[in-house]
Design a protein that fits this description.
binds nickel (II) ion; about 240 residues; Jelly Rolls; alpha+beta
Length: about 240
């Protein structure tokens, strides 16, 4: 991806969108970048997730497990591909994230991760809050952006959110099945997810969610891939008080 499109594709959100986010803990928008850039990003994604690549790991199985990964992920792909820091997607996502966080864009930093759900055997992402993955001694002011690189629906693993769940506390999580060699987390106690909302998106659309918003995605039961490129935007975390 040496030659990123320099274009004027700008996306912003309305005051109503910001109010919706604060009330519900998530927001989706139909379009955050161009088809051309989605295509370029698929190229980067496929390079990072090639079988011979060492830049991904399996989130949902023990470290070093044999066989094809069921939920491969790469963290901070921008370290290998610095041009990812200045894509139309990231520029638009930063603008929107800054509004949702009530920060100036210059006050935000970001880091990315890419997640694959292979056809037919892509694992579910169990219900969780992203903050559970982070340092418990720090306090965060952050929002996650999530962009599918393939059309995402309930059957190949679009995101589901529990509206308003970001207003509650950080809930106890454990590594999947209590196995500390598995990176992926799940809630320890069952929660009521009966009000959960599925958010299907076309490739190049995006959703935003608060780090305490409960979210999940189903296994991929289709013949289609579900590649996604997420970015976390935040102000520098500070030591947690009390
Ligand atoms: Ni998550």
């Amino acid at each position: 991806m040496s030659d990123l499109a320099i274009d004027e594709f700008e996306v912003d959100v309305t005051d109503d969108d910001v109010a919706f986010f604060h009330a519900n803990g998530y927001l989706s928008i139909e379009r955050i970048t161009t088809d051309e850039e989605v295509d370029q990003l698929r190229g980067v994604f496929d390079e990072l997730f090639a079988p011979s690549s060492s830049s991904y790991f399996d989130v949902m199985r023990p470290a070093g497990a044999d066989g094809a990964p069921i939920f491969p992920q790469t963290i901070m792909p921008e370290l290998r591909h610095p041009e990812l820091r200045d894509t139309t997607y990231v520029r638009n996502a930063r603008r929107i994230a800054a509004r949702l966080l009530d920060l100036d864009e210059s006050e935000t930093t970001h880091w990315g991760h890419m997640l694959d759900k292979p056809p037919r055997y892509g694992h579910e992402a169990p219900w969780h809050q992203d903050e559970a993955y982070w340092d418990p001694t720090l306090s965060y002011h952050a929002v996650g952006a999530w962009m599918p690189l393939d059309d995402a629906d309930v059957d190949n693993g679009c995101m589901w959110f529990v509206p308003g769940s970001h207003l509650g506390p950080l809930l106890p999580h454990q590594h999947l099945g209590g196995d500390p060699t598995i990176h992926g987390l799940e809630l320890i106690d069952p929660v009521d997810t009966s009000t959960a909302v599925a958010v299907p998106l076309r490739a190049g659309g995006a959703s935003f969610h608060h780090p305490r918003t409960l979210h999940f995605s189903r296994p991929n039961t289709t013949d289609r891939r579900r590649r996604a490129y997420a970015n976390e935007f935040q102000s520098p975390p500070v030591p947690r008080q009390g």
